[in-house]
Design a protein that fits this description.
CATH topology of the largest domain: Immunoglobulin-like
Oligomer: single chain
Number of helices: 2
Mean pLDDT: 80
CATH architecture of the largest domain: Sandwich
Largest sheet: 5 strands, mixed
Low-confidence stretches: 1-32
Distance between the termini: 110 Å
Number of strands: 17
């Protein structure tokens, strides 16, 4: 009887030890995960007339204790912290909203934010903002007789001294091969290379330019043919 009782006692101890180990592992795993974010890198494209790009990160506390956000350190003065939680309760989340201010700049800006939490832990967030370049020559439309129009060229001159690296041109939704001439950093589209049978009373020449700083400009130019 004593032998049977000892076995039961040992069995209970083993079970208790196993449960304790499992609980300890779960707690350690939760602590190791710490503060996480829904996405560590965000890219935003804004219109040429906008001055600010907005970024929204969702921070989450995966631990079983309160997490304190001690400091937010942007990599540039152009990055502003719009809103951020100061702490997160266990198994909760909060929004960190930041912005990049372009001012009079165009092209691409890449920056980071270092999130310091619980004194010495750091989480890095990457922000990429793109603002397409404005054009100094930006025709709203071309209007005239068909023979007059096909003798013209559409010219785009990039501002700020940037050059056109490549361009994609389509006419009424159809891609035009070899219809682009890059000259002295500007973009020229000779309308004479477009088939006359492709013209309609109202046409659209769509231009997508990529510049030397990797910024992108997209524009659809209406072309109206009189007495078509």
């Amino acid at each position: 009887m004593k032998f049977y009782i000892d076995l039961c006692h040992i069995g209970v101890v083993i079970v208790v030890l196993l449960i304790s180990c499992q609980d300890s592992s779960s707690a350690t795993l939760a602590d190791e995960q710490g503060l996480t974010v829904d996405q560590t890198s965000i890219e935003v494209v804004i219109p040429p007339n906008s001055l600010k790009a907005i970024f929204k990160f969702v921070l989450r506390n995966n631990t079983n204790k309160k997490v304190y956000i001690n400091k937010l350190t942007p990599s540039c003065e152009c990055v502003f912290i719009e809103r951020s939680p100061t702490h997160l309760l266990p198994d909760s989340s909060g929004e960190l909203i930041a912005s990049i201010i372009f001012g009079d700049r165009f092209g691409s800006i890449e920056q980071k934010i270092a999130v310091t939490y619980d004194t010495d832990n750091i989480l890095f967030l990457s922000l990429t903002a793109r603002r397409p370049l404005k054009m100094t020559s930006d025709p709203e439309f071309i209007q005239g007789r068909l023979d007059e129009i096909t003798s013209q060229s559409v010219m785009f001159i990039p501002a700020s001294g940037l050059e056109v690296a490549k361009a994609e041109i389509s006419f009424n939704g159809v891609f035009i091969a070899n219809a682009v001439s890059v000259r002295n950093g500007s973009l020229e589209v000779p309308l004479a290379q477009i088939s006359l049978s492709s013209f309609r009373p109202t046409n659209f020449l769509k231009i997508i330019c990529t510049f030397s700083d990797e910024s992108v400009f997209e524009r659809a130019v209406p072309i109206y043919v009189i007495d078509y």
